[in-house]
Amino acid sequence: MTAPFATTSGATATTSTPAASPGSMAEFDATTSRWGRLTMLAGLVFSLAGPLYLVFFADLGVTATALFTAFAAVAGTFFVIWIIEPITYFPILGPASMYQAFMIGNISNKLLPSALIAQARIDARPGTHRGGLAAVMAICGAAFVHLLSLLVFVGILGTWLISVIPESVTDVVRVYVLPAVLGAVIIQAIVSLKQVRATAVAAVVAALVQFVLVPLVPALGMAATAISVIVTLVIGWYVRKREPFEPTTTEGETHP
Amino acid sequence: MIAAASVAAAQAADPSSDPNAVLALANMPVLWICALGVFLVIAIQSVIYMMAARKAAPAAGLSQQELKTTFRTGAIAAIGPSLAVVLVAVALLALFGTPATLVRIGLIGSVQYETAAASIAAGTVGAELGGPSYDQQAFAIMFFAMSLGGAMWMLSTLILTPLLKKGEHRMAKVNPALMTVVPAAALLGAFLSLGFAEVPKSSVHVITLAASALVMGACLLLARLPGMRWLREWGLGIAILLGLAAAYLAQAAGFAPAA
């Protein structure tokens, strides 16, 4: 609280303010990183409390080995994304909004558009303090709408809808919703990522793993997706654009 | 096929794999309370952030009127995308129950990662999501693995954000190819592998997968037309619904026995 100079007015506030004087951007940074972290930790605890309750108190006979295996298979598939996604979004979101975005979810399809539209609305540029505050307020607004629509339309109306839909329909939904999601998600990923070589590598590797490797060695079934991801990563990196094409390293893998 | 059918029949006889038993577990009051806890935490966080923003607004050159405008603009811009997420979430209620759907699909995660994680986790215990082997135990293991996986995103945000804040300029110099090629390869490898894993299950699974992919492709193409940009958000929900409609018709047409 012993700031040598207070930046209380004008758009010229700088990040070099050494301590958090009241009403300064430094104070805003301090408040949002402290409370952002605390609330995110609280969200993390609540999100794990449900499944932990089922595992420990619902008497379902779940073993630690089964839990570890299931988590390891998920981790083998997504560990790269866990690290890269926060790094990717940091320059766009800024530190304060990071703690909002990764708890509210649906970042690219909802939070980023909201923040960008709000910044444009008041002519604030991303990367400035004005832009940063505009993004935070826009994400708060988006969070408000999102929480409300989820509670009303999914929590209340959706639960009611499931109870009145004929069982023959919910049966079909339950059994086939996974391929219905995956078909669309695959096309969405291919179109939005725009990585032709990675797409080709992934298609060949995933087909080999699922249609050749798994039928031959059924025990590998539970690691199939993690294997596909890691092999695609390695080959995809070697055949990426801007690198001279090296037929010797890839020919054997991609053309069996 | 006969062996598989008899295994399925044996598992169907297990009372805990009755779909209603799984849903009863998935909709337990304790899980509702935990889900509402996440809602409450996000609401509290938003209020704290808005109070901090109001205080810092003069220093950043923002009027109180502009604060209100940005909040309202963000809220209005989120209506369409939020309803698109609602549509997808409702389609998953029969599989995950309401509390898990609200937290995993609606909040923290997204439908892409969470259904992928669920399918991978269920596979490790030999269960097929929504199939006869999808019992209470499989649900608990799957819910645990997808939640812990989602927690890793939050954990890495908690660890990386302070580091990135310190070294903002250094991180900007990371090889850009690393940041685009690696996540693209990982995501494409994961989703294509999971998609192909659906193919051997039955011809109805193949029809559903193909129908959903075709509808999504059509939506993304149409979204390039002027005035049709909304299809980029709604495409996923529309493709899932029409994919399920194709599954319903294919099953009714006798392509596969009811699971």
Please outline the helices and strands:
The complex is a heterodimer of chains A (256) and B (259).
Chain A: H1 25-57, H2 64-104, H3 107-121, H4 129-164, H5 167-193, H6 196-216, H7 224-238, H8 247-254
Chain B: H1 2-13, H2 19-26, H3 29-60, H4 64-96, H5 98-106, H6 111-124, H7 136-166, H8 168-171, H9 176-198, H10 203-222, H11 231-252
Concise summary:
The complex is a heterodimer of chains A (256) and B (259). Chain A has 256 residues and is mostly helical.
Give a verbal description of the structure.
- The complex is a heterodimer of chains A (256) and B (259).
- Chain A is an all-alpha fold and 256 residues long.
- The model of chain A is unreliable at 1-18 and 243-256 (pLDDT under 50).
- Chain A contains eight helices and no strands.
- Helices cover 77% and strands 0% of the residues of chain A.
- In chain A, helix 1 packs antiparallel against helix 2 and helix 2 (64-104) crosses helix 4.
- Chain B is mainly alpha-helical.
- In chain B, 80% of the residues lie in helices and 0% in strands.
- Chain B has eleven helices and no strands.
- Chain B has helices at 2-13, 19-26, 29-60, 64-96, 98-106, 111-124, 136-166, 168-171, 176-198, 203-222, 231-252.
- The radius of gyration of chain B is 22 Å and the shape is globular.
- Chain B starts with a helix and ends in a 7-residue tail after the last helix.
- Classes of the chains: A mainly alpha (256), B mainly alpha (259).
- At the A-B interface, helix 1, helix 2, helix 3, helix 4 and helix 5 of A face helix 3, helix 4, helix 5, helix 6 and helix 7 of B.
